[in-house]
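Journal club prep — side note

Before the paper discussion, L.F. wants everyone to see what a predicted structure for a comparable chain looks like in C-alpha cell form. Sequence:
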Amino acid sequence: MTEAEDVAVFQDVPQDAAGPIRVVLVDDQELVRAGFRMVLDAQPDIEVVGEAGDGVQALELLRSTRADVVLMDVRMPRMDGIEATRLVVARSGPKVVILTTFDLDEYAFAAIKAGAGGFMLKDAGPAQLIEAIKAVHSGDAVVAPSTTKRLLDRFAVHLPDADEKAGGALESLTEREGEVLRLVARGMSNAEIAGRLYVSEATVKTHMGRILMKLGLRDRVQAVVFAYETGLVKSGQSGHSA
C-alpha cells in the first residue's frame, strides 16, 4: 500500500458522530477478539463493525469501513500495533486504544508515542473497556493514573535524552502550568490535582488545555510523555509523596 493510498484510506471514509460508537477490533488471537466482541455487542451504544488479525488487515479494513475507535493489540505478525497506530493517526483516522498485557509488552510506550489515545490492560473488566472506548471517542485520553506511572517507570530507561527544543518549550509555561504538568505526569487525576493545589477541577482542566496548546501536544498522554522526556519528572517520583 503506497503512502497516497494510505491517505485515501481515511480521507474517503466519512466520520459521522451520530449513532452508536463504531469499533474495530485488532488482535491476532481470535478468542481475544471474540471475548471483546461479546462484551461490546451487548452495549446499545457500541457496535463492532470489523475485526483484523494484524496491522495490515486493519489498514485494509479501514479503507472501506467507517470506525470511530480501534482497539489495537501491540504484538502481531506482519505489522504490529505500533506501526499500525502511527499510520492510522497520521492519516487522521479513528481514535486508537492500545491493548497491552503490560508485563510482556515492551512496545506499549512506543505505541502511545505513535499517537494512541490511550492504553489499557487486556485483563481490564468489561466496565473499564466500555468506559475507555467512550472516553477516547469523546476526545479524552485514556490514562489511568496508577497504570500511567507504573508504565512510565518501567520504560523510563528507553526514553531519549531531552533535547534543547523540548526543554525550551517548558519556558513557555507559567509556574502554575508547570506545576500542573508535573502532577499530571506523576500520575495524579484532575480531582487529586485540584485538591493538592486548592483549586477547582475546572481550573485544572483550563490549565491542561493551555499546556497542550503551548506545547503543541495532542492530549494528556502526550503531556505525560513530554514531561518524562524533558526531565520535568524523573522515573520513580510520585505525586502522592509529601
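L.F.'s comment for the group: The CA atoms of residues 42 and 48 lie 10 Å apart. Keep this in mind when we get to the figures.
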